[in-house]
Amino acid sequence: MNIHDLVRELNENVGAVVVQTMAGVKDRTSPYKWAKPDGPDPRQDIEDRLRLGYRVWKTLAIAEGKHVALAWLMGANPRLEENLPVLYIQQQRSREVIGAAEAFVDDTYAA
Q1: What total of structural domains would you count in the chain?
Q2: Which DSSP state fits 42?
Q3: CA pair distance 73, 84, nearest whole angstrom
Q4: Structural domain includes residue 110
């Protein structure tokens, strides 16, 4: 998926502040700039975080709905040592955050 389309979809569904947090950037306008078809491309490390965030969000949104997906991203998570999943995305801790999302979707969350 084109990064600009991906960011636009994330902005529309989780909000630019969450996208900014996922990306680990300080500039609040960056998610809006990246969402423009002719906007700047994020650096590769930022794009990797955004793609990870999209994968996690999409996994949850398909199974549970977009509101539950957003709440999950921003809520303390027992599988992630009570940390926010969005911060695991920012730190590119892929295995842990994808595992937690899949466990939630598969109802093995409390296991």
Answers
A1: 1
A2: P
A3: 6
A4: no
pTM of the model: 0.94
Does residue 38 fall inside a structural domain? yes
| Structural domain boundaries, residue 37 | 3-105
User: Which DSSP helix (H) or strand (E) runs through 24?
Assistant: none
Query: Residue 58 half-sphere exposure, CB side, CA atoms within 13 Å?
Result: 11
Alpha helices in 1-111 (DSSP H): 3-14, 16-23, 30-35, 44-64, 66-74, 85-90, 94-105
Quick one: DSSP state of residue 78? G
Query: Is residue 17 situated within a structural domain?
Result: yes
Which residues share a beta bridge with 83?
A: 77
Which pLDDT tens digits describe the chain residue by residue (111 residues)? Answer: 999 999 999 999 999 999 999 999 999 999 999 999 999 999 999 999 999 999 999 999 999 999 999 999 999 999 999 999 999 999 999 999 999 999 999 987 554
